[in-house]
């Protein structure tokens, strides 16, 4: 709005107001008197433009976006801590228990045992919030000595940790809230409640799934993977506990029988024939090609909740492979053995299997 209010434009207008018989050249008394004021006014216009943008949700950011969305009851989701499966064994590989509150380290992260699943299997919570808690796997080191413990392993992600909600995600959620009013168990209400659960990355709602009063909600984990049974159970208990379904003891309205399911994975095996640059071997591009295909499948999974169904397209895969340094051309790409796109069911998400490179 104020982009034309530059220092030069302001100073020119100010000098135009000075009588023509006065010396207005650069370095003159009147020029030197007006120039600092023009610079301050230009800065003022810059700050006015920033303030204007911060006052509207579509251009705001940071604290000011939070204050804007809070007016409609939409607050930024804070970072959450990952919950993982910890497996512990003693002499001869026999499972052993560890005290609740025991702390373990892997790399720069620490995890604490919060609850027991079965003998030798515990829920471990990362002490650092965010997605970083989802990434490490393997041997754990006890921070304090535990008698009888021989091996400790950090295994499955039970509930993914999430980073603090980004400005763009907060903005989308805010706009969805004011354009799709949630009320009394409508589809928007289920989406709003379920997507606010830590570890949930998206949900599809199927009203009247098996007749009147039944609802199916299919979720995806916040890291856009298949949700664990633990996460599905937590959402089920929160929305409509299985032992008292339909009685309104969860967040679902009385009379709604809600079934929570998880998105299912479809493995995508890719085979392709590449023309490589001189001196380049398949082994030199294998990792980069796999990374490009994996990134494409991840982009599909991130859009899953907003799509009726996902389509894995050969053209998109070939276009991304062409971005790999050393690849000159791509031909004959197949998905799961066929030279055709793969259309998934509404509750399916693609995951990377094998990538075979022919030359």
Secondary structure blueprint with pairings:
Layout: H1 7-16, H2 29-54, H3 62-70, E1 83-89, E2 103-106, E3 109-118, E4 121-126, E5 138-139, E6 141-142, E7 151-159, H4 167-179, H5 187-195, E8 200-207, E9 214-221, H6 229-239, E10 257-262, E11 264-276, H7 282-302, E12 311-312, H8 314-321, E13 327-335, E14 342-343, E15 348-358
Parallel strand pairs: 9-10, 11-15
Antiparallel strand pairs: 1-4, 1-7, 2-3, 2-6, 3-4, 5-7, 8-9, 11-13, 12-14
Helix pairs in contact: 1-2, 3-4, 7-8
Key descriptive features of the protein:
single chain, 359 residues, alpha+beta, 4 domains, seven-stranded antiparallel beta sheet, three-stranded mixed beta sheet, 8 helices, 15 strands, 30% helix
Give the biggest sheet: 7 strands, antiparallel
Distance between the termini: 56 Å
Secondary-structure content class: alpha+beta
Query: Uncertain runs with pLDDT below 50, 5 residues or more?
Result: none
One letter per element, helices H and strands E, the order comes to: HHHEEEEEEEHHEEHEEHEHEEE
Radius of gyration: 29 Å
Shape: extended
Query: Which range best describes the helical content: under 10%, 10-25%, 25-40%, 40-55%, 55-70% or over 70%?
Result: 25-40%
Strand-residue fraction? 25-35%
Number of domains: 4
Number of helices: 8
Strand order of the largest sheet: 5-7-1-4-3-2-6
Count the strands?
15
Q: What is the typical, i.e. mean, pLDDT? A: 93
